[in-house]
Design a protein that fits this description.
Layout (H helix, E strand, L loop, with lengths): L9 E7 L3 E7 L32 H17 L6 E5 L10 H15 L4 E6 L7 H9 L2 E5 L5 H8 L8 H9 L6 E5 L1 E5 L2 E4 L3 H14 L3 E5 L10 E3 L2 H12 L5 E3 L1
Parallel strand pairs: 2-3, 3-4, 4-5, 5-6, 6-9, 9-11
Antiparallel strand pairs: 1-2, 7-8, 7-10
Length: 258
């Protein structure tokens, strides 16, 4: 069974296939998973494993642990490309997410002024203006859009909210325009007896229209890289990802394939 990945608030650095040498910040509990999605491909497992007992780390704890790690890395002459908010769930759920972003920017400026700050966000909290303002402050605002068709998105991402739709979130992401990166997981398979495939012509056309509406700085296309909670999923080959990417590039969309 796939379970939570990160048992600390600050983890790494690790090599990210998309971002480089990345120091992770996990705003979820270190012994559980808290997320507004329950994605069938999530490397941290399903939400049903529970939120654990540790609770969310406090703003003060995040700042203290991050400063300790950055200070140590500077002293040891270690390299760093990016500080990345990811972890065991959706970082923007944390009630002090905006303040934590401000703290992180200050610490970055003090210890690694050339390092980028990235947030991997599932886009479910873009209706909260304080979250939106915080995301505008980071270098890499990476927003999830796994399908521009609501029925497919709901099969893949399984949002907690029954009213969350692709149409709604595309409009919310579009507020950021070229100040965001859109990340899309491409996959095929089965879940609960339902066929899932966001690589079809219909799906690709819907994504293309969404990307045109959003006009992001870049689209990140990727597929499954590690074990997933749903076992009946198929990784999309790099060749097929590149073929899909060419469709988007032909329309003037910048695409990175991983």
């Amino acid at each position: 069974m796939v379970t939570i990945l990160f048992h600390s608030t600050i983890f790494g650095p690790i090599h990210s296939r998309r971002l480089g040498t990345s120091l992770g910040v996990n705003l979820s509990p270190i012994d559980g998973k808290v997320c507004s999605f329950d994605c069938i491909y999530c490397e941290a497992g399903y939400n049903s494993q529970g939120a654990g007992k540790a609770g969310l780390p406090s703003r003060e704890e995040v700042a203290r642990l991050l400063e300790e790690k950055l200070k140590s890395m500077v002293a040891n002459g270690e390299n760093l490309d990016v500080i990345t908010f990811s972890g065991n769930g959706e970082p923007t759920i944390h009630p002090q997410f905006p303040e934590i972003i401000d703290d992180t920017i200050a610490l970055r400026n003090q210890y690694f002024p050339n390092v980028k700050i990235s947030v991997l966000c599932n886009s479910t909290r873009l209706g909260d203006e304080s979250v939106v303002k915080a995301l505008f402050k980071v270098d890499n605002n990476i927003l999830k859009l796994d399908s521009a068709i609501t029925s497919t998105m709901r099969l893949i991402d399984q949002p907690n909210s029954p009213t969350f739709t692709s149409e709604q979130v595309v409009e919310q992401i579009a507020r950021f325009g070229n100040q965001c990166i859109v990340q899309t997981m491409m996959l095929r398979g089965w879940h609960d007896g339902c066929r899932i495939d966001n690589t079809t012509t219909e799906e690709v056309e819907a994504l293309l229209n969404a990307y045109k509406r959003i006009n992001p700085a870049e689209v990140m296309l990727y597929s499954i890289d590690r074990k997933t909670p749903e076992e009946n999923l198929e990784k999309v080959s790099i060749e097929e990802l590149n073929s899909i990417a060419e469709t988007f590039r032909a329309a003037g969309i910048k695409v990175q394939v991983n």
